Structures are given as structure tokens and as C-alpha cells.
From TrEMBL:
Matches recorded under Pfam families: DUF2620
Protein name in the entry: DUF2620 domain-containing protein
Source species, domain of life: Bacteria
Amino acid sequence: MMKILTGGVGKVEVTGTVKALALDGVDIVVSSDMDAAMKLRAGQADFYLGTCHTGAGASLGVLVGLMGRPACHTFGRSVPTEDQVNSLLDQGKKVFGFSMDQIDVIAPLIARAIAARA
């Protein structure tokens, strides 16, 4: 079971969007950025999806500071392809940031890629 934590201004929306997919092997929980960083570092969670208005920084600020930039990726306002998401997962990225207005596209894309690895 892969555990995904959500944070940022759209954390409730991300959680609802991913839960509605009913993906096997994925548990998604609303969190805060600080709590998520601690749980990721302790191995109590596997991934973090953070949202803000631009997807360019506030969605991941604390996580970048505590997890390190190599574990994090922000899409900003761009929409990735399935191949790009899989490539980032292959590189070991565990923390993803994106803008609130793209939750309905990006959250399912990332969640399905994670579920495929569960």
C-alpha cells in the first residue's frame, strides 16, 4: 500500500479527487507540509502532493527544505505527460507540487502512476 499525503491550499480537493479514483494500493490522507515531511522522512508515508495558487514554490517550500531538492519536483503551471511523471518517479521523486487549477488533471495522473507501482 502506497501512502500519499496532501498539503497546501488544495489539499482537501486533491484528496477527494484521488479517493474518487478508488485505486487499489493507494491510501491518500490530508496532511500539513510539516507533518508530511516528518512522516516521509520516518518512512510512514511514501509521497506528498502539494498545491498552491501557482504551483511554483509555496506548495513545496517546507518539503524542499526538509527533504532536499532531489526528492522534490514542482510542475508549476505545466501539465506533465504520463511519461514525464513515470520518469520523475523512476528518479526517486517523492514530493510533487502543482497549481490548484490543475488538480483535476495532475492529481489523477500522479496517483495512477503511483498505483501502478504499488
